[in-house]
Hints:
The chain is mainly beta. The chain has helices spanning 7-11, 35-38, 77-80, 240-262; strands spanning 27-29, 41-43, 50-55, 61-66, 71-75, 95-103, 109-116, 123-129, 136-145, 155-161, 172-181, 185-194, 200-208, 217-223, 227-236.
Amino acid sequence: MTQKLTPTLSLALLFVPMAASHAQVAFSTDFPNEESYTGNFVTMPSSSATLAWQSDGEGGGYLLKTGAGTQSVIFDTSATGGSGGSRADNAYTNVAVSSLYQQNIYGLSMSTWAHVSDNYRSGYLGYFSLSSSSSALLRIYDSNSDPYANTVGTVLASETVTGLSLSTNTDYLVELIVENDGASAVDFTLTLWDFTHTTSIASVTATDTTSPVLQGQVGLRLSSQTIQYSEFSVSPIPEPAATAAIAATLVVLVYVCRRKALGC
Length: 264
């Protein structure tokens, strides 16, 4: 007779020791109210740009960036008193940062910050521009980029992708994945997806081996004129040690279940 797995064994999976990524904050918002923005992001100085929450008239909302200047915001709930996380916000290592956005004309750009320093004066930047109805520009800048001053550092990778079919006033998802390769390198993948996050439209990869910064905060950088954001998310990526521990635990569980089923 087949025996069911006991509660004691099933709980074993819940207590697998996790790597440092366990302390990092997983966060996602579709900006349902103003607090979802002001309570979870720190706004960097800007001379002529404004980023503010707007109601969509249907019980939800979005962020609207206006003005010709550049505006950066950093996800940091401890500084704003929001409910999204804790001071672990400054310790992202292996992480995926994504945002759903649209722009009203071609040629505008939006970017994603990663591994930003506590004083907001340095960080990596994944840059994307919807150049035309048939082309997109993707770039990754090194950690000499400065969120506070809204300046960029040295280009690690740049790719102009042509032959596309793109539109203004259409939602696209931009995702930056950052993964440490030990303590000697940081790998990046910047991808433009359709709004469902199922079809990859364009991407670029890069690696920083010169002066890799292994952890920090994340955020957004918005340039040029009107850009609308309707979603933002940050998701820690399990480190190899954590993944291996989970896999090992699953093997043990399967072995124990088989022994019980066979009456061993």
